[in-house]
Amino acid sequence: MLVGRQDDLDAIRSAIGHAASGSPQLVVIEGDPGIGKRSLARAALAGAGGAQIVRVTCDRSETSVAYAALDQLLRAADLDPGPPEALGSTLPAARRLLNALNQLDETISPLCVLIEEAHLMDESSAEVLAIVARRLSAECLLVIATCEPASGGFADAAKGLSGGQVLRLDGLSFDDLVVLTRHRGLTVPERRLRHWLETTGGNPAYLTAILEGYSAAPAGQAENVPLPASLTEAASARIAVASPPARALLELLSVAENPMTVAQVSAAAASEGIEVSVPEAQEVGLLDTGQGGQLRTLRPASNILRHTARVLMPPARRRDMHRAVAGVVNGETRLVHLAASVEDTDPEVARLLVQGAEEALDGGRYRRACELLLRAADVTPDASIFENLVLRAGLVIAYAEDPGMTAEINPLVRRCQPSPLRTMLLGMEAFLAQDYANAEHQATTALEQAVRAGKDQTAIGAAVLAGSLRAHSTEPASALEAFDAARQATERLPDAPITRAYHVQRAWAEWMNGRFEAALEELEWLDRDPRPLPERTDTHFVRARIRFYQGNSSGAAEDVAAGLAVMDDLSIPTGVLRGLGELALLDWHAGRWETAQERARLVLDTGKDVRRNYGLVASRATLANIAAAQGSWSEAERHLAAAAKVPSELAAIQTRVHLASASAGLERARRNPAAMLAALDPLREAPFALAAARINNGWWRAFEVEALVALDRLTEAADAQERFREESGHQPTLALHGHPDWTGALLARARGEHDTALEISARSVAATAPPLVHALQMRDHASLLSGSGRHQEARRARERAESLLQRLGATAYLGSAADDPDQRADGLPAHLTSREREVARLAAEGWTNKEIAARLFVTAKTIEYHLGNVMAKLGLRSRRQLRPLLARSAAVQP
Question: What DSSP assignment string belongs to 439-497?
């Protein structure tokens, strides 16, 4: 797929048109290897109609063979070039080629000659073609030559000819990359796309390799797709022909993280006695000349050249270059180069690296801090200092949530002597390996040992690890015990980064214990520092959950978005997945279904290399909820099955609630109350029910009451309704799956208490609820209004409900007779319960109470009770009056 080249494509097609009208054209397409020169030329010629196309591909192996390209050209045009000596000298050969082209031009119009890799053309052919190009006047001829920058030979000669045009191809833009990604059916986060664009310089061949790797392998591995061999070979060839000073300049620039000024390059080279040459490097295309060819700063011509130069450098040479760059840069960049220049150990460099790491930690640059600490550990000769550095690096890894960094630190951990520190780091290793039981055991042991030994940092780190693991269990009270054990240590180290982590994780634990005010107090402690530190992301997320379950969904969305912004800036991928999953659920409840789907699919695509992440579960639940409401049963089932496979030890309560609620929502849409109740079984277990209630997440009870009422299990429904009232608060502010007044109205109606049902139903439609729930509550309210003879009000309420359902796209709740609250398909009003309808139909068919009881496996008294409710609701005095109400009778036989 050709993207981002429309202007160039139009220019070549215009040249084809001019050539067809007798005005010969010459187009040079210039760009780096893999930039798309050949693809552009061939795409343009593919639309050249009846033109004859002669293609020549120059090859490096024939660069020194006289007339090799000319021989290929004549043969491609079905002309016999004869023996090499027949071509003679340059002028006779040029005359012969010109005559041949004129003969072809008379038979086919236009003639298009494509010379690929023209920078590799042999010198003899280049001279001939240059002479021919200068003598073209009225031929219907187009010559297209593709070449690399600063290539010399025919390409340079062609660029200087009058009437020729040069198309210089740059890398793709961000918008082009988005088009390319979507064409492959991929959804990739903007942060990652921009990283790829920066890494590849927009090179289409390199980007294509990355996208192919991303779609075929876990995303984390696809980040480091190696350069395609064709690009590496081309870059190596260009470097090979460079002079030693030009090559040295490229090597120097390739190890630098940022562009260097000419003065910096001169000073760096002088410090190590390295000879460099800017003009020579520029001549062979090793430098990025920038806009207008102005060398304001120096950098490699492409990241492909940078990467290849690094690979080709011997280790000793690479250390020399790092040492040279370190002498002319400052700050953390200087420290990185200093560390890379050390062959064995260097105490002074280690000291500087530690100092830089502390500054990075204080600024929240945890990835950089970890990098500096690990490098310091590599170059320090002191074992005790080494252990201290490993401790710090381990804490940083916990902040960064980066499993890749774990691989670097694991060997260092095992070099530590037995100590609380080593035990804690082993716990962190187990945590990042998702071995949570082992992680909690190690953390608890380390906490006890560190408190006894007075090792404050270790005690705080162990408390953070143990407490965060316990907080998400069904017994979160034990988490507070772990945090309490390290409270005094945090008071002695109030400004340490690990203390910030302590307050964040304690806030989560307080929230999981239902202690919202205590959680907010921990967050207020963190709010004293407004910097965009990683801890602030969880500050936003904890506050978002408290707000959400207290009814402030818009405030919760703002907090999640703010936390995401910080995480995206700091490149914390697992945290972003969690936050996006949370935001997708919020969008679902708020009725922003398209946005919710986009966020959820982004999480699933981005996190395909992640086994355990709450964001994956939240996203699957979101997509299942929407699919169910839209009537896509199989799609909803697929998402629920995938979500159930995601390990959820760190978010067991939230995961169970979301999965069970989504499953119940699917069965609600299917109108299957028995399956709805079965879907809630995981939540009805005492530990999880209590844990969910603690965090104000008992809204799943709405499904429970609704299902029990529909199944005519009214005693159980009354008990469930009482629990729902208690757990949601008697004045709930947000009804996620149904308001307690709505379920109360369902129960009252089932008992035949029509007036009571209507009164409390009115309260439910006046309360705050997600749009889908509000529509369902409004529709049931319309049914109650109709049953009270208030038909005009019922019609208005029903129209509002149907309009909202249509706007949402909730087709599962539209378009069936069962959705008409005034009249169902069987002719009976909708405000009868399912059991009352069944009894009424059988009674209308002439069945006695005893016969109905035997069929339904209940007592005759129960049938008498239901039939009495039917008579009262319909205002009938005799069961004989039921028959006229039935539009179509159920086909049942006694």
Answer: HHHHHHHHHHHHHHHT-HHHHHHHHHHHHHHHHTSS-THHHHHHHHHTHHHHHHSTTSH
473 conformational bin, left if phi > 0, alpha if psi -120 to 50, beta if neither: beta
User: Which residues are paired to 52 by β-bridges?
Assistant: 111
Give mean pLDDT, residues 732-738: 69
Q: Which residue has the tokens 């074992």?
A: 383
Q: Which of 112, 105, 115 is nearest to 154 (CA)?
A: 115
Beta strands in 627-741 (DSSP E): none
SS3 55: strand
Higher-pLDDT residue of 578 and 781 is: 781
- Whether 832 and 876 have beta carbons less than 8 Å apart is answered as no
CA dihedral sign, ordered 808, 809, 812, 817: positive
**How far apart (Å, rounded) are the C-alpha atoms in residues 619 and 599?**
8
Mean pLDDT score of the chain: 81
For residue range 302-318, what is the model confidence (pLDDT) as tens digits?
888 888 998 899 999 99
Nearest to 866 by CA among 888, 835, 843, 887: 835
**Residue 654: both structure tokens together:** 């939230």
Please state which of the ranges 26-30, 123-127, 165-169, 869-873 shows the lowest mean pLDDT: 869-873
In angstroms, the CA 742 to CA 762 distance is 9
Please give the pLDDT value at position 222: 40
242 Cβ contact list (under 8 Å, min separation 6): 250, 280, 281, 284, 286
Tokens 């009249």 map to which residue?
823
Question: Which of 97-101, 347-351, 601-605 shows the lowest mean pLDDT across its residues?
Answer: 97-101
Across 661-721, the runs of DSSP E, i.e. the strands, are none
**Site of tokens 């270059």:** 321
CA distances from 878 to 340, 800, 841, 852, 883 (A): 95, 36, 14, 17, 10
Give the CA count within 13 Å in the CB-facing half-sphere of 379: 23
Q: Give the span between the Cα atoms of 348 and 847, in whole angstroms.
A: 98
Distance CA 617, CA 647 (A): 9
Please tell me whether residue 798 adopts helix, strand or coil conformation: helix
Query: For the whole model, what pTM was predicted?
Result: 0.56
What pairing do the DSSP bridges indicate for beta strands 25-30 and 141-147?
parallel
3-state secondary structure of 736: coil
Above 90 in pLDDT, residue 251? yes
The total of other beta-carbon atoms located within 10 Å of residue 521's CB is: 14
Do the Cβ atoms of 643 and 611 come closer than 8 Å?
no
Give helix then strand counts, H and E, for the chain.
Answer: 47, 5
With CA atoms as reference, report the closest residue to 334 among 356, 318, 350. Answer: 356
Q: Which residue is it, tokens 């008990």?
A: 719
Please give the helix or strand (H or E) that residue 16 lies within, else none.
helix 6-20
Contact at 8 Å (CB) between 542 and 535? Answer: no
Among 201, 176, 196, smallest CA distance to 32 is for: 201
| Nearest-10 crossing angle of helices 436-453, 456-471 | 150
> What are the start-end ranges of the H helices in 671-790?
673-679, 681-684, 686-694, 701-710, 714-728, 740-750, 754-766, 771-787
Neighbours of 349 (CB within 10 A): 20
The residues that bridge with 260 in the sheet, in sequence order, are 298
- Locate 320 and state its tokens: 């020399």
Q: Is 257 helix (H, G, I), strand (E, B) or coil?
A: coil
pLDDT tens digit sequence for 364-421? 677 788 888 888 888 888 877 877 787 677 766 655 556 666 666 777 777 777 888 8
Q: Which residues are CB-neighbours of 32 under 8 A, at least 6 positions away?
A: 148, 149, 201, 203, 301, 302, 304
Residue type, 171: G
Question: Is 291 or 16 the better-scoring residue by pLDDT?
Answer: 16
436-476 tens-digit pLDDT: 789 889 999 999 999 999 989 889 989 988 988 887 665 67
How many residues are there in the chain?
A: 894
Q: Tell me the two tokens of residue 880.
A: 């004989």
Beta bridge mates, 431: none
The Cβ of residue 90 has, within 10 Å, a number of other Cβ atoms equal to 17
